[in-house]
Specification:
The protein is mainly α and about 260 residues long. The chain is built from 11 helices and no strands.
């Protein structure tokens, strides 16, 4: 039989068959007088064995050894493969839990799952979909760059912002922040900066009272690039004003990032 027939019978592609030849799993027959390679039933059995072992999860180097031997592999080989599958099951179970969590709160799938429930409350309190998407992008970037300690701090901020007594104000401020562009007037910038400052003052105080972990200072290089390349000039102006106001009024307390 020719390579295409062998591949079809074995349920693989001709490309996979050639790969088996290249790595030495399957001996390549000589070409006949008509220029085609002719495979026998022994080749089909070998390919079926390769497929069976690969489906079980064995690596190609392991398969190569098994094809040559007549005894089962040592128990350690099975143990290692079983441990790998157990790890994959744990990972997939965790992924399913994350999906269920995001679905429960009708969250954007790429939203950090730590804040999904809080985003849900803010959306119900008036946060627009477009503003939620902008906030997702900012928070995703910050959580990635700030590390686990920063993630905990940001999650605590969202929990406090989404409390019923301030969720509407937080949603309004976040929506106004997302809509602020390069054409924002000085009056708009100062009004929003004051609104966000008044919103965050009690939040920062509550975090301090809870003895929450401090937000690690971002490296100047990436923070400068983030605020220059990603935020509008209006958003940068609000951010600078809010940070200055919070630092002045709390005498050294770390100000929250551009949430």
């Amino acid at each position: 039989m020719r390579s295409s027939e062998l591949a079809s019978l074995a349920g693989i592609t001709v490309r996979a068959l050639r790969h088996y030849h290249q790595i030495g799993l399957l001996e390549e027959p000589e070409r006949s007088s008509n220029g085609y390679r002719d495979y026998g039933t022994h080749a089909l059995v070998t390919v079926l064995r390769i497929r069976r072992l690969a489906d079980l999860g064995f690596s190609l180097p392991q398969i190569s050894t098994m094809l040559e031997g007549t005894e089962p592999p040592p128990a350690e080989v099975f143990d290692a493969l079983d441990a790998e599958f157990a790890s994959q099951i744990d990972r997939l179970t965790h992924q399913r839990e994350l999906l269920a969590h995001l679905r429960q709160y009708e969250a954007l799938p790429d939203l950090p799952p730590q804040i999904a429930s809080f985003h849900h409350l803010l959306l119900r309190s008036g946060l627009t979909g477009s503003a939620a998407a902008v906030d997702r992008d900012h928070t995703l970037l910050l959580m990635h760059l700030m590390g686990s300690q920063g993630q905990g701090y940001l999650t605590a901020i969202y929990e406090l912002l989404s409390h019923p007594h301030r969720a509407s104000a937080a949603a309004a401020a976040m929506t106004a922040w997302a809509d602020l562009d390069d054409d924002a007037s000085r009056e708009e910038i100062m009004a929003l900066a004051e609104q966000i400052t008044e919103l965050f003052l009690p939040v920062v105080a509550e975090l301090a009272a809870q003895d929450a972990p401090e937000l690690p200072a971002p490296p100047d290089a990436w923070f400068s690039q983030h605020t220059t390349d990603y935020l509008s000039s209006g958003q940068r102006a609000v951010l600078d004003t809010v940070r200055s106001a919070l630092e002045a009024r709390h005498d050294g307390t770390s100000a929250p990032p551009d949430t």
